């Protein structure tokens, strides 16, 4: 197979930081992880934004990291077909963030987390002024309801949880343990104990390590000194 191009220590350090960001603080509705034990290719899944025709789907993406990253943007491709003015049938994404200046707005300060959040925002709010697929762009402008119906049909056909199989990330951990020097690159798990790749926001009571004490009859509940302080949740 192709050898990883990420041999420059500073670049490797940058990518390991990005893995940590994606693991500890991923954008809402987004999950991404290194492909196998490489740092020059990532796999991602995006849950369709709420209040969009993609809301019932989960979309897979591939990200290729160029040798000059972060001075060049990653190459992003939708693996799951999507009906969208700015994403063609080959999965290419037309987005300023993914283009070099002066045509685009890429800069080395942008990271993969920002890229994926921007793509999810593009799914929620297409940009017909920079359309990539002419007929879908025309339909989006002239017949919004027709566009939304077609986008929902594509989502139901190609991106439903049942048909769009979850990518298995367990091999990341296994391969890392087998190879010395790879242990710092841990697998990025989308969620613990669930099969769905990009879960909806869990209610606060399900979040690990967080206690919620609800007042009864308008009175605050007392906590024992051993529990320590309890965060107020608005």
Automatic annotation (TrEMBL):
Molecular function in Gene Ontology: ATP binding; ubiquitin conjugating enzyme activity
Biased composition range(s): Basic and acidic residues: 181-204
Protein name from the UniProt record: E2 ubiquitin-conjugating enzyme
Bias-annotated ranges (Basic residues): 205-222
UniProt-annotated catalytic positions: 94 (glycyl thioester intermediate)
InterPro entries the UniProt entry points to: UBC (IPR000608), UBQ-conjugating_AS (IPR023313), UBQ-conjugating_enzyme/RWD (IPR016135)
PANTHER family: UBIQUITIN-CONJUGATING ENZYME E2 (PTHR24068)
Organism: Lotharella globosa
Pfam entry (one): UQ_con
Residue segments, region Disordered: 156-234
């Amino acid at each position: 197979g192709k050898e990883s191009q990420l041999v420059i220590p500073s670049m490797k350090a940058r990518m390991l930081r990005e893995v940590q960001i994606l693991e500890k603080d991923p954008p809402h509705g987004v999950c991404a992880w290194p492909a196998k034990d490489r740092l020059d290719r990532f796999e991602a899944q995006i849950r369709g934004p709420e209040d969009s025709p993609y809301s019932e789907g989960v979309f897979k993406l591939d990200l290729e990291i160029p040798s000059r990253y972060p001075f060049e943007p990653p190459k992003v491709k939708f693996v799951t077909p999507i009906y969208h003015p700015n994403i063609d049938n080959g999965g290419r994404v037309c987005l300023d963030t993914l283009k070099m200046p002066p045509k685009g707005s890429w800069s080395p300060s942008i990271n993969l987390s920002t890229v994926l959040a921007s793509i999810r925002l593009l799914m929620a709010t297409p940009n017909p002024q920079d359309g990539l697929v002419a007929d879908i762009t025309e339909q989006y402008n002239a017949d919004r309801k027709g566009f939304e119906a077609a986008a929902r049909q594509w989502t139901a056909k190609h991106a439903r949880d049942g048909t769009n199989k979850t990518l298995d990330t367990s091999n990341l951990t296994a391969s890392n343990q087998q190879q010395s020097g790879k242990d710092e690159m841990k697998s990025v798990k989308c969620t613990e104990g669930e099969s769905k790749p990009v879960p909806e926001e869990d209610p606060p009571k399900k979040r690990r390590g967080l206690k919620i004490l609800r007042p009864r009859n308008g009175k605050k509940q007392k906590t024992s000194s051993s529990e320590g302080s309890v965060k107020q949740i608005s």
